[in-house]
Amino acid sequence: MIMTVRTKAVKLICAITAALATMLVLGLTGMTAIAASALGRPQSGTYLGYPSPEADKRIIVGVTAVDKHNGARYYCSEVGESVNYFIGDSTLIADSDPARRLAWLMDEYDTQGDGLTLAAIGVLVHDHFDVNMERWKMHRDVIYAEYPDIGARVDELWEEAGRNAPLDSTVEQTYAKGVREGDVSVQILNAYDEPVAGVAYTVTLSGPAVFVENGEATISGVTTDQPIIHAWRATEAGEVTVTPAYDVPALELVPGTQDLIRLSERMTKQGGDAVRFAARKDFAPGIVTETTSRTVDAGEAVYDDVTVLLDGERNHWLDGEVLNATGWYFAGIPADRVDDDLAPDENERAEAFVKRIAEFGYEPAAYGMATFTESGQTVRVQAMTELGGDEPYLAPGDGKFGTWVWAIELDEQSERVREHLTHDIVTPFLDPAETNANRSNLMVESTVTEHSATVGAELSDTITVGGFPDDHGSFAGDKTLGLGADRAHAQVSVWWAGDASDPSKDDDWRPAGAQVPDEDEHHRLVGTWDYPAVNGRIRVGGGEPDAHGDAVHITAETHGWYVFVWSFAGDDRVAAAFSAYDDAWERTRVRESPPMTPPDTPDEETPPDEPETTEEPVELTLVTQVDPERVAVGESFRDVAMIRGSLPDGAYVTFSAYKAIAEGELPGVNDKLLDEARSVPQPAGVVDGAAAVRKGNAIPDDDQNIGVNDDTHDDENRDTETSDDGYATDAADIAGEEEAGRSDDAGDDAAATGTWTAASPEISSPDAGFVYWRATVFSAEGDVLVTHELGVEGEVVTVTEPPTVEVPPSEEPEPSLPYTGADIGIALAVACVALAGGIALLMAAHRRPI
């Protein structure tokens, strides 16, 4: 039992000893930790003392404690409490302008500063971070009373910190070359928006861009008193965000019996406002085009204004580079297909788009090329017949529509441009701004029914019109294209000219000039009627209806001149046109005297009488006959005219032949092979009248510019003639020749009566078809004395294709038997055998005894 007690006692003593040892160890450890967190008292001269307003003792403001290891200074943030110089864990104070300023001051005056300066820093700590501001105000008043200069020093330090502590950052992005390259400008600012030098920063690009300096998305540096610029370049297309970050000194709160604040050993990273911008590596020009004219007349050049534009500030021209653009002009688009607009597919190549247009039925009629060196540049391009050629394309004048398609083709650019141009840039087909109307020119052939008449006669005119589009009258216009509707009607006006009171003076008012006159006592508009503005032949007068179905009657009520004038005001598909007021075929001379009576036609066997001057003129008649009526392409033919009646002095005959047309086509509205070739009539009996034929105006095949006024005859046309030998002779010479068959005493107005002949020059047609002739007898003044309509019997030549001559194949002679080496050898062998046999027989015969 005693042993047990002793044993238990020993065990108890051991346990107590172990516990005491453990407590001792723990206590020593705790003391070591406390000793490690203990602060030292501040040095003299780093603070100012003042009487506490709460107790009868002096306390300090300024540096309150000092780290014994690194000398870091601590400032009080809880006024009136005692400091035990033992501290616990610290926490970062939230970032703010006061925190940054005080952190800068604590860093700046970490090892320097007099008592007033450090006390002023202590005042600022209490001003912004004291836990009891009401309590602090009492102490502050005492301090300011004790030290009158401290208030000014507090203000100085606050401003000094405000100018040196980083408060904000700015990042600006500027484009240098469109959105492909640019600069990022970095600045760290103080509280007064002034740059702060010496601040470490980092700028990061988030998106398709890198910095040129290092080829990376992040770059770092230290600020100066000027903005720092870093260049960037795009790597693809997209949005880029620029985020700045910079180092900011921080404060830490150290809790204890009295809360303290110190400068943190750690710098905090603060980011400024992010900047976003668009970046793109590709070069994206746009094409803006506009046709120079909404309407183009036949034979005119076709132009287009082409402009290359970049889309505002986010695009930039590649320095020193040019862009090449190609244009295709499509023509012949009918009115009912102007809505067949077609847009290129996304990233579709120009070549493929043009092929797709061809599937619509349109091939390029002309081409254009343009080169550009800057954005906004406009080039006026003329259409050419070949790509890259120099032969101008001329509008066809078919009354249809044309449109441009332009493209900047990737394959046609320099290597550098191709690096930035991602695909062909192509404009749509039938873009309204690029579409025009190719106006057709009209051709009008017309003649009055009678070129001379008496008062009371009914007048009429036959007009043949060609050149209107076949669908003219059906196009209602297109506001999108800016084109107006077809004009439905043409007009025919009849004018009277003369001296109503004196018939002898009517000739003084002979129609002159292409334009109609103003109405006065010698000129009067008889009437105007509408007729359909379409191709075809119309009859004006004689009771025939106009466009509105009303019968038209035109009566010669007064002696003088009656002139028919056809006109069309024009529209966006057909050019304006009119017949000339002085057109000799379109006027009728009306007299008061009765018409002349034709003479009896002599028998064919009776030779024609020699022309003789008669006192009573005989009405002229005209009989014409082509010679021959049927030829092959390229063969010669002509026209011969016979005139009977009274032929005035100076009268002449003209011959016109129209180019061959197909059966069923309207004659007279196409071009001519021969245009008003003059011939001086000769008395019948001269061989075919050929000796009197003057050189005519043969029309070249490529002359396409026959207008509606080509048949005008004026004094200028009549002044000179061209003789057979090529020399010009004047009208007096011609008149002298004609006097051979006329009376010498006939006078100026004399007319020889008889039979006359005239012949045209010989011509040929390069094309098959029907060639229509017209012969007309003119007076010396240019008035039509007698003529005929196109297509009368004997005035049409049928031109056929030359027959195809089939050349029979040549007969080859029968080949002779071949002579070969083998055949010759056999023949020689046979001959040798025969010769040897003959010799042997002779020898045998010679040896036989007789």
From TrEMBL:
The protein's superkingdom reads Bacteria
Composition bias of kind Acidic residues appears in 601-616
Query: Which residue ranges have biased composition labelled Low complexity?
Result: 749-759
Bilayer-crossing regions:
824-845
Keywords on record:
Membrane, Transmembrane, Transmembrane helix
The UniProt annotation puts the region (Disordered) at 500-520, 589-616, 695-760
What is the protein name for this chain?
A: Peptidase
Which organism encodes this protein? Answer: Bifidobacterium biavatii DSM 23969
